[in-house]
């Protein structure tokens, strides 16, 4: 009796697995053209106020570490 139950369970598992696996998901089409043109970021010249703020934050950071 146990053997029949095992066979039925295995059949059910195989049936569920085979029905749940449809087709693989479609992939995006492969593109042959690859570009090597890169956009270089433009630098920003800092004003004296920006430099002062950065220096103040840098000094605060250094004093916090050296305590």
Describe what you observe in this structure.
It is a single chain. The protein has helices spanning 2-20, 48-65. The protein is mostly helical.
Rg calculated over all Cα atoms: 33 Å
Outline type: elongated
Q: How is the main sheet built?
A: none
Cα(first) to Cα(last) distance is 77 Å
Mean pLDDT: 84
Instruction: Note the total helix count.
Output: 2
Could you give the order of the helices and strands?
HH
Helix content: 55-70%
Helix-strand category: mainly alpha
Unreliable stretches: none
Number of strands: 0
Share in β-strands: under 5%
**What's the oligomerization state?**
single chain
Give keywords:
mainly alpha, 2 helices, 67 residues
Brief description of this entry?
The protein is built from two helices and no strands. 55% of the residues lie in helices and 0% in strands.
């Amino acid at each position: 009796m146990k053997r029949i139950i095992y066979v039925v369970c295995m059949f059910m598992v195989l049936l569920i697995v085979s029905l749940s696996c449809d087709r693989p998901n479609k992939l995006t089409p492969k593109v042959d053209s690859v570009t090597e043109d890169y956009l270089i970021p433009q630098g920003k010249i800092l004003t004296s106020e920006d430099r002062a703020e950065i220096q103040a934050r840098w000094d605060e950071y250094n004093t916090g570490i050296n305590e």
